[in-house]
Amino acid sequence: MSDTSFAFQPIGFIATPFADKFGIPRQPQLAPHATGTLQLLAPYNRAEAVRGLEAFSHVWLSWVFHQTAGQWQPTVRPPRLGGNRRVGVFASRSPFRPNPLGLSLVALAGIDTRDGVTLSFTGVDLVDGTPILDIKPYIPFVESQPAARGGFVDGPPPRLEVVFSPAASASLATHALRYPALPELIREVLAQDPRPAYADEGERQYGVRLYTLDIKWRCQHGQAIVDEIIAL
Fold it and tell me: Between 95 and which of 15, 68, 131, 197 could a Cys-Cys bridge form, CB atoms 3.0 to 4.6 Å apart?
């Protein structure tokens, strides 16, 4: 058995609206208004390193589950199975992996090479500050498999209706001046019901941090009700 090990260095750290893990979409592309910006580090921040990338609409991001490194588990409880059924870690996309590597397919929104290299993405599912290890273009004719089986995640998750209280609506109008896509982002994030799989409706209030805001909300009768939007 080989005892070879490998060391990787980030090519950059992505900036996203997600200040912590709670509320992040469980898969990329589920929140199209979740944007990300990646400024490449030297020596990777050369324009020739991204030459031709503009011809692709989507890219794969390879990244590190940096907040769960060293916590691998052989079996996990996927939220899509209600949090009460175990599957093998390799049959899931759980962060608790032997090597804490993640893979996300995101839309490429822009490339700026005027001062180094800065890439913009939409549909991200990464916490702010996630280390990015690599970027590869998505190639539809080999990577799109319409007949593929999706196992226990074969199909999109159910969605909640998102409702804003009068107080939240007033705050939203103010904060949307700084974050124009904030209303759409909140709806996309909360519609997926980011609560733990074992949660019941009740009156418990949750908080999702987006940008510099704390979104206070609760779930009731199949609706995600936004009570407050608080600046941090």
Answer: 68
Instruction: Look at residue 68 in the predicted model and tell me its pLDDT.
Output: 79
- Separation between Cα atoms, residue 132 and residue 158, nearest integer Å: 30
Cα 146 from chain centroid (whole Å): 23
How many angstroms separate the CA atoms of 1 and 11, rounded? 30
Picking from 59, 62, 89, 63, the residue whose alpha carbon sits closest to that of residue 74 is: 89
Q: Which residue ranges make up each domain of the chain?
A: 12-143, 161-231
Give the integer Cα–Cα distance in Å for 142 and 52. Answer: 19
CATH level 3 topology of 161-231: YaeB-like fold (3.30.2310)
The CATH H-level superfamily of 12-143 is YaeB-like (2.40.30.70)
DSSP H helical ranges for the chain: 140-143, 166-175, 182-191
Token representation of residue 30:
């589920």
What are the structure tokens assigned to 31, written together? Answer: 């929140």
Measure the CA–CA gap between 28 and 62, rounded to whole angstroms: 13
